[in-house]
UniProtKB/TrEMBL annotation:
Gene3D superfamilies: Barwin-like endoglucanases, RlpA-like domain. This is peptidoglycan lytic exotransglycosylase. SUPFAM superfamilies: Barwin-like endoglucanases (SSF50685). PANTHER family: MEMBRANE-BOUND LYTIC MUREIN TRANSGLYCOSYLASE A (PTHR30124:SF0). It catalyses: Exolytic cleavage of the (1->4)-beta-glycosidic linkage between N-acetylmuramic acid (MurNAc) and N-acetylglucosamine (GlcNAc) residues in peptidoglycan, from either the reducing or the non-reducing ends of the peptidoglycan chains, with concomitant formation of a 1,6-anhydrobond in the MurNAc residue. Its EC number is 4.2.2.n1. Keywords: Cell wall biogenesis/degradation, Lyase, Signal. It is an enzyme of class 4 (lyase). It comes from the Bacteria. Residues 1-24 form the signal peptide. The keyword Signal applies. Residues 171-328 form the Lytic transglycosylase MltA domain. PROSITE patterns: PROKAR_LIPOPROTEIN (PS51257).
Amino acid sequence: MFWRRGIGASVPLAALALSACVGGGMPPVAREGAAPPAGPIRHHVTRGEDAANLRGATGQIVGAAPLAGQPVVVPAGVTNAAAAGVVAGPPVASLPITDAQAVAARAAFARSCPGLMRRTDTSGLTRGTDWQGACAAAAAGGDARAFFATWFEAVQVGDGKAFATGYYEPEIRGSLDRAPGYEVPVYGRPSDLVDVDLGKFSDDLKGKTVRGRVQGKALVPYYDRTEIEGGAIARTAPVLAWAADPVEIFFLQIQGSGRLRLPDGNVLRIGYDTQNGRSYTGIGSLMRQRGLLAPGQASMQGIVAWLHAHPDEGRALMRENKSFVFFRELDGPPQGAMGYAVTGQVSAAADPKFVPLGTPVFLSADRADATGLWVAQDTGGAIKGANRFDTFWGAGPLAETVAGGMSARGSAFLLLPIGTLARLSAAASGAAGATPSP
């Protein structure tokens, strides 16, 4: 996902089609008998970009038998990984990690190391110093699979039952100037949008933030999608470009990052800057509840086709998602929530309360293309809770097809520095044996 997400916070495509972020999956659009991608969304793959296929992805579903996790009863209402509980996973050397995956994941891990050692780990699993040895070894090179087997232990968080969706970097039609056929503004951050760190006002609110605007002497919610599209921010937000299609820019907002193909053939790359603070509503789930999608239409392409075929109803439906994303121009590849470039077929989004950002994760899924080593470098508005992941597939038609149909279930194992589990177990034992003060 890309919002939060310079890409920084994405909402998965499967969430659009089915249950707003956490529910069932979407059928793959390239399966035999399925319709080809519909609508005017087009893609361009830069020469050499996303050329390496680490996972044999073809758009077809190839089944796999996921490894079983240990049976664990998770307490209700847990707020982070430490509270959910951790148990040992399989030996890292026994995991079916390919050489190509290991090489790519080590590079992504090494890129994440500065943030990994600096950031406060809200999952409760690690400390910055825990990663020093592995980070130094990652920079030294050598055999990549041996690197992971030497420096990491596999840990299961809670019951380990994983659900993975997918996201990608779309390309849509746009223009730097407003012109016939290019009438939809692509907004940058408004000057009157205010971020408030509530933790500065109360320790009880530490880690919580709100966004809004000042009206008189009060902080009020920021304008919602309907108000923004009605011109509420015309004087306060810069227009980075003009899109050709409101449906295309709506989906680009959901992805959080993408490319605008300009009339002269050049490309403007834009990424998530911030969001209006309103809650996200998945229109796919609304469409399903209202019976708007025929059998076989519950895919991103099916939703796009319906919105184009019903422009007035589609506009009203999209406005039920009050969330609105503001962009900034990028001078390089899309970035995840850590501020580092994300890599197709390597990077994934996760909930930092359950996965320290920068952590390698082995997904053992019922789909072969989702199975393997990923690195959690991003977050997502719909990616919440233990063992919930959104896999990034890069750019281009294949990325769209795989991400749009990704819905994989299985087991997840975090790869944490060796000794982490023993330290957590000792700390838990010490806490359990402590004598309460009178």
